[in-house]
């Protein structure tokens, strides 16, 4: 399967780089801080050039240089995000404080990306209030996905259900950036991750009520198997859902729109 092949490739490469970094004396906390700093630089690029056009209609001037730089920086920030845990595991440097620091700085990184995008649309000659609001909602969704899990795991053993984990959200931001399709990415992240928050709320309620909520649809009845977004990573249904999300980010002709001005342009 596509997901398994990609995952195995990245795992092998990630662990090889992590072993090199361990030999060089790099610590997980260094990578965590580096990832946040690089994300902050990317946020500045978003604020300077998030863009008003969308994929495949770039115009004569071509893609925004600021977005290309932001994409390169987000790629490196994502690499740091993957490597800090691998360095901690391979180098035997995992600590509870390191996990806490990583999670905390991730929230700052989430905020900076969407704040940069919001600043871009707010500072135009004709500010786009809709995209500013959607960027704020997208950040709030990212925050609530993390918060709902942290709060739930204070009262139940674990709560990791839901499609929109941090890896999926980071990949969406990166793909939307490199596809020069920030409006489509912001709209997606303002809508779909909310479903993961709601699922975690429902899952926690079920556990506290004494039920055993189904976490693997492969063990459930046939009608649950039709919920492709609930299948685990590295499965065919998960690949289908991921492919659809990627296609939206690359091809969706969502032009900047402003509902508050009665100017809505989707498709």
Characteristics:
267 residues, mainly alpha, 10 helices, 0% strand, globular
Describe the protein in words.
It is built from ten helices and no strands. The longest helix has 27 residues, at 96-122. The chain starts with a helix and ends in a 16-residue tail after the last helix. The chain has helices at 2-23, 28-49, 65-90, 96-122, 129-152, 166-178, 182-191, 193-208, 222-225, 236-251. Helix content is 67%, strand content 0%. The mean pLDDT is 88.
Based on Cα principal axes, name the global outline. globular
Terminal residue distance: 32 Å
Query: Looking at the chains present, what oligomeric state does this protein adopt?
Result: single chain
H/E element sequence: HHHHHHHHHH
Please tell me how large the radius of gyration is: 19 Å
Low-confidence segments:
none
How many helical stretches? 10
Structure summary, number of beta strands: 0
> Residue share in helices?
55-70%
Find the structural class using helix and strand composition. mainly alpha
Average pLDDT over all residues: 88
Strand share of the residues?
A: under 5%
Largest sheet features: none
Any chance you could write out the topology, listing elements then pairs?
Layout: H1 2-23, H2 28-49, H3 65-90, H4 96-122, H5 129-152, H6 166-178, H7 182-191, H8 193-208, H9 222-225, H10 236-251
